[in-house]
Amino acid sequence: MAIDWLRITDELQAEVTRHGFEWIDFTHSAVQRSPWLRLYVDRRESSLTIDDITFLTRVLVTWLQAKLPESINFRLDVSSPGLDRPFQKPWQFAKQIGQHLQLTVHGEPALQGPLGKLTAVSESGITITLNDGSTVEYSWDRIVDGKVIFPVQEKNMKTKGTRR
């Protein structure tokens, strides 16, 4: 029996939202009898905790057991987006005010290293303060994604490719 992944995904997203979490991404393997399911979630107003992940995993395992045929032996991995995962939604940017960002922008070459510090988020876009103190604004329609660059990563990016 083939699994209707579109239906399962839609219903799973509704279940995640019903419990107060934000749906970030979902992938699954093509194996029908023992698929792995990987779900990334977040919270708008606060950081995720281990307790949040444990709670949601238990809820979703019970939910999936009721939705999938008994012969399906699935593996579920629920996780936060993590430090390296790019973010795309305005509320995700708002949680990063004060952090140094690497930004991917439509129509511009990929930047290697931090662009600057995120200083404002609005309905129209974001404001980045560059190292020289000047500011640059990007509208939401130009932003592909952003990623926080931590001091250790910044140092590694500056020394990458240099020999000692």
Beta-strand proportion: 25-35%
Q: How many DSSP E strands? A: 8
Number of helices: 4
Element-level helix/strand string: HEEHEHEEEEEH
**Major β-sheet annotation:** 5 strands, antiparallel
Q: Strand arrangement, largest sheet?
A: 7-6-5-4-8
Shape: elongated
What is the terminal separation in angstroms?
A: 59 Å
Rg over alpha carbons = 19 Å
| Mean pLDDT across residues | 85
- Going by helix content, strand content and strand pairing, the class is alpha+beta
| Weakly predicted, low-confidence segments | none
Helix percentage: 25-40%
How would you sum up this structure, described in words?
This protein is an alpha+beta fold. The protein is 28% helix and 29% strand. It has four helices and eight strands. The strands form two sheets. A five-stranded antiparallel beta sheet has the order 7-6-5-4-8. Strands 1-2-3 form a three-stranded mixed beta sheet, with helices on one face. A hairpin with a 7-residue loop joins β1 and β2 (36-42). It starts with a helix and ends in a 5-residue tail after the last helix. The model has no long low-confidence stretch (mean pLDDT 85).
